[in-house]
Write a structure and sequence with these properties.
The chain has helices spanning about 25-45, 50-65, 80-85, 105-110, 140-145, 150-155, 190-195, 205-215, 230-240, 250-265, 275-290, 295-310, 315-320, 325-335; strands spanning about 1-5, 10, 70, 90, 95, 110-115, 120-125, 130-135, 155-160, 160-165, 170-175, 195-200, 230, 265-270, 315, 340. With about 350 residues, it is α/β, with parallel strands linked by helices. The protein folds into 2 domains: about 1-20 and about 245-340, Magnesium chelatase subunit I, C-Terminal domain (Helicase, Ruva Protein, domain 3, Orthogonal Bundle); about 45-230, P-loop containing nucleotide triphosphate hydrolases (Rossmann fold), CATH 3.40.50. The strands form 6 sheets. A 5-stranded parallel β-sheet has the order 5-8-11-3-12. A 3-stranded mixed β-sheet has the order 1-2-16, covered by helices on one side. A hairpin with a 2-residue loop joins β9 and β10. α1 (about 25-45) packs across α2, α2 crosses α11 and α12 packs antiparallel against α14. It is globular, with a radius of gyration of 21 Å. Mean pLDDT is about 90; it is low at about 1-10. This is MoxR-like ATPase. InterPro entries: AAA+_ATPase, ATPase_AAA-3, CbbQ/NirQ/NorQ/GpvN, ChlI/MoxR_AAA_lid, P-loop_NTPase. It comes from Rarobacter incanus.
Amino acid sequence: MTSGPGGRIVGVSLNQPGNHTESASTGTELMRAQSIIADLHAGMASVITGHDALIRTTIAVLLARGHILIEDVPGVGKTTLAKALAALIDTRTGRIQFTPDLLPSDVTGVTLLHDVEGRSSFRPGPVFANIVIADEINRASPKAQSALLECMAERQVTVGGRTYRLPDPFLVVATQNPIEMEGTYPLPEAQRDRFMAKLEVGYPSAQAELLMLDQRDGEDPLDALRPVVQATEIAALTRFVHTVYISPVIKEYLVAIVAGTRAHPAVRVGASPRATLQLAAACRALAVLHTRNFVIPDDVQEMVGPVLAHRLVLAPQARAEGVDPAEIVRQVVTSIPVPRPA
């Protein structure tokens, strides 16, 4: 690795050594992936107008075997986005409406005792699905929120001393309102760290909002969506994404960025090692979205904000000053030399 002008790294190979041309099988996998991705993107774009970057990141997290947290004000399409993704995949979908009186057993399920001899059976909760929509997750108590910790990290549920595996693929798409709004409980750090990415929908542009008025005209576009891919195909695609190559210099770049969040003076707790792993997985998935079987710095720079910002715990002074964690991530990325191909 050598440093060029301005501290940028030059003269490095980002492709897999000895494999600069794709094999026939890899090319076929990439073509199949592009077909699936295009169908998913088109279906979601028909419902969520003017949010291509949001849709792209959502698909990347799905293929990276991550979980998504969508935060924004009511009415901008958080739940609609989650329902659109679920409708496009022919699979089991569970929905949990998080409320202040929700119990952990309402999420994971309950063991029922049938007679005095101790015979019992397990009644699975809505979390036993391939896609779980956790709607308004921060309106439930921390005790109810914690029911998802084991599910998201280990893809299993333990109830009554017995462990039950969750189906594959398994994706949690959670929505939440900003914590300043009435009746919300902030997610604990451990819960936030289990979400691969946090996304914001935002208000549509005036043109997109006009198009929405023209397209809907009293009809719900979700009703027109049909499955375009099987759950087994998504599972196979996630396995292919795991084979995408990350060169040593890109790995060093990832680690340097994550380490930079821990050293920033405005941050009390930086991004975790789990964040490093999930950033790498998200970059692999984004590379596939761009029809590549190797990761480049542009992938890292696109995914680093959604993957890292929500994990940062700010120092008290920074929190009092209203410092934006996303801005801290941008500062860190700017300070790290960027690997460039030879």
